[in-house]
Structures are given as structure tokens and as C-alpha cells.
Amino acid sequence: MSTLQEFDSIEALRGALTARKVSASELANAALQAAQAQSGLNAFLHVDPELTLAQARAADQMLANGQAHPLTGVPIAHKDVFVTQGWRTTAASKMLANYTSPFDATVVSKLALAGAVSVGKLNCDEFAMGSGNENSAFGPTRNPWDTQRVPGGSSGGSAAAVAAGIVPATTGTDTGGSVRQPAALCGVSGIKPTYGTVSRFGMIAFGSSLDQAGPVARHAKDLLELLDTMSGFDERDSTSLEFCDGVANAPGRMRNEFAQHAAQFDANGAKPLQGLRIGVPTEFFGDGLSADVAAAIEAALQHYEALGATRVNISLPRTKLSIPAYYVIAPAEASSNLSRYDGVRYGHRANQYGDLADMTSRSRAEGFGPEVIRRIMVGTYVLCHGYYDAYYLQAQRVRRMITNDFQQAFADQCDVIMGPVTPSVAKRIGDNRDDPTADWLADVYTLGVSLAGLPAMSIPCGFGGAEGKLPVGLQIIGNYFREGQILAIADRFQQVTDWHQRKPEQK
């Protein structure tokens, strides 16, 4: 058993590091060895032991000097859409195959300043466009629970690395569900915070009004450790929020809210969640939801009721409209964001071409994969003169209506919303090869949250599939800036269940 697998949480790791029972260098070496041993998962795109061990030695020095932060010495890894000095940043695309950034993304630098040790860069769908991690130019990541199945996307490498026990936590990004969905399919926990609470500076853009960074880990408390560190106002990001409901957007905000809710739950005694109203949307339990996933979600809801919560049936009537709205807005923003990759300013340049137009066309055709090209084409189409009003503006109107549905539910009926993350357990790699848009339908429960900019997370709540061996995730959706609340609610569930502690057999 590796050193890392002896600890079941970041808190346990921190205790061992502080007591000098283990060093940051030993943990880093263990993570590097685990990454190599499980290279068949294809979770990592770039590992550089020298860079990792240099960070680990610096963390050991911080510990020795009594200057440690909560994450000092903890091994993590970054999704390959965060630019990093030293490690390559490819966005899992041939377009950026050999790119190395001269600076770190804000998320990366914040975690580094807190002493976290990066093991490397993680595989993902190309430019974060996908739901299964099959769109990577460097091959799909494989689900540790069944290597013939997808880990979910686009942050598939992030979820797989945690599920396999290579690192205790990773960073990901969520545009339409890309943290929550892979967390659910890999049996780990993941959270997307309120849009604007975490800086997007240095995060390669897909959909600028949707993209938001979030962590993946086993425990809700581990998510809190990373997310509280990652969050905060950043003047280099025009979408970064300076205040969150009147409270300064800075580290400590989420931790304080978590502590307040945890204290209240403790004060409630045997029924810690007494008074909590859980909204359950009827639209999340209709046709398309598999029976095994529905059963696991129902069992989790009953568990919450046993903890004192009250279930309230609510309606989010425009749930199905989130799919067409998202797949107009997100491709439109992708078309704009990816226009910079033209063979001149950024990215791959074709070796053979005629004039400038031919160079740009060939460079983009060679550098981008099929899914990225598909979304660029859709986005360019809906932004064209004559179609802009009919598609893009109409999608934005639907987006506002979806947001209003959530706000009405929170104002009148419930404190949080719960339901499934995905309609089914992880599919087999290649299942939807003949229908590349079929994966879009799997995002039906996550897209509305992203369109509304709300915080939401996934926690393990059971297993499904033909043999009952594939993870199922429960989605917990909160109102704006209530990350601490939903993390505390998730933590209370994880205190009395062990789904998040289940691990796949290593092969």
C-alpha cells in the first residue's frame, strides 16, 4: 500500500505532515509512483518528477519553519486547461500540443502559494468540450471502476485520478456539468461554485459566461479545503466578483459559512438537518432516468429525511429547454474564444499551405478535433446575421427563464435542490460513436445550474449498472453564494454513510 492510501482525507494528511510522520517529498514520490503504476487509465497528460519534487522540498521547508498552510505538502493535480509554468498546457488538443505557459493560472498560483504540490496535468475532453473524456486528442481516460467505460467529462482525468487514489484532490472546470458529471461516474465528490467566485484568469476559455473552476476529492471537507483557497476576487478577470451577497469574495468566506451550518447541525442533536427543506424537481425523475440511478437517489433522499430534512416536491418546468439553450450559447462563445487559434497568434500551424486564408483553414482543420469543429460550426452559424435573433438571443431569453425557475423555487419552496447528476451510470467507451450528439442529452440535469450560474455539487450515493458496481452521484444545488451550506449538508450525509470511501479494485 502506498503512503497516500494510508490516509483517507486531507485532514489526515495534514495531521501526519504536521506531526512529521511523513514528509511532503515522500507523499509526492508516492503520487508519482501511483501515476506511473496506473498509467493505463490515461489520466495524466504530463508528469515532470523534477518539478513536483522541487515543490515538495519547498513544502517540507515551510513545514520545518512552522509556516505551513492547510494544504502544504498535499499532492494535487491540475486539469489541462489551467495554464502552468513548467508543465505543458495542451487543453488535450493537437492545437496546443507543445505549449508551455510563461505564467500560472490564478487557481494554480493560489494553490501553490498554499503549499500544495502539483503532480502534473490531467487529461480532459479537448478544450473541455465533451461529457465522456473521449474527445481528448491524446486518447480517452478510463474509469477506474471499469476501464472499458468513460469516467465522464470533461474533467474525466481529474475524477479518475482521485478515484484511483493517485492524488487526494484535483482541479477541474465545469461549463455544463464537467466537474459534477465525472465526479458522479467515478464515485467521488466534486463542486462547481457560484459563477464569478473563482478566477478564470489563466483558464483556457470554452464558454466565458459559463466556465467555472471547481475541485474534485473524496470528501466534502476536502472540497472545502481546496475551494476556499481557490476562491477570491481577481482584478485580472473581468467576470470575477468582488463581493458575494455583501461579503468580500476572499478565502475564509466559504469556510466560515460551512462552520456556521455545521454548528447549527450539531446543535440540532439527533435530527441535525431539522428544518432543512429539500426541493425535489419532478422533471428530474421522468422518462430517461434509469431505474438503478433513480433507486440510489431515492435511497439518499430517504437518508436525508432520516437526518431531519423535509422533502418538498417542486417543478423546474424548463429543464428540458436547458439542452437547446446551452448548445446554442456555449458553442457561440466557443466559436468566439477559439478564433484566436489561427496558426499565427496561437497554436498549431500547417506545414503546407498557399495563401494566408489557406494557412488558417488548414491549421485549424489539423489542430482541432471533430467535436471542437462541430461546436465551432454550430456557434458560428447561430451568430451569423439573420440567425442571431432567432437562435442566440432566443437562447439567452430561455436562460433567463430557467434562472427565474430556480429563484422562484428557492424563494418560496426550498433551501436546496437535490436530484440525479446523470440519467445513467457510466457508458462504455465508444457507445455513442455513431451519434456524436447523444452525449449532449446526458447533461440534462446539470445544464440548468450552469446557465443560472448557481453552485452545485455531486457526492457518491450508491451503485448501479447490471452488476451494481458502477457509482451513482447525488446532485445538491444551492442558491447563489451558498457553497458553504451545500458542502456542510453533503458532509453531514458523508458522516453517516460510506459511499465516498468506497474504492475500485486496483488491477
UniProtKB/TrEMBL annotation:
GO biological process: translation
Keyword tags: ATP-binding, Ligase, Nucleotide-binding, Protein biosynthesis, Transferase
Listed InterPro entries: Amidase, Amidase_CS, Amidase_dom, AS_sf, GatA
Pfam families attached to this UniProt entry: Amidase
Molecular function via GO: ATP binding; glutaminyl-tRNA synthase (glutamine-hydrolyzing) activity; transferase activity
Gene3D superfamilies found in the cross-reference section: Amidase signature (AS) domain
Catalytic activities: L-glutamyl-tRNA(Gln) + L-glutamine + ATP + H2O = L-glutaminyl-tRNA(Gln) + L-glutamate + ADP + phosphate + H(+)
EC class: ligase
The protein's Enzyme Commission number: 6.3.5.7
GO cellular component, one term: glutamyl-tRNA(Gln) amidotransferase complex
Residue numbers annotated as active site: 79, 154, 178
Domain Amidase: 28-487
Subunit structure: Heterotrimer of A, B and C subunits.
Family: Belongs to the amidase family. GatA subfamily.
Stored HAMAP family: GatA
Cited function: Allows the formation of correctly charged Gln-tRNA(Gln) through the transamidation of misacylated Glu-tRNA(Gln) in organisms which lack glutaminyl-tRNA synthetase. The reaction takes place in the presence of glutamine and ATP through an activated gamma-phospho-Glu-tRNA(Gln).
Name listed for the protein in its UniProt record: Glutamyl-tRNA(Gln) amidotransferase subunit A
Native source organism of the sequence: Pusillimonas minor
Taxonomic placement: Bacteria, Pseudomonadati, Pseudomonadota, Betaproteobacteria, Burkholderiales
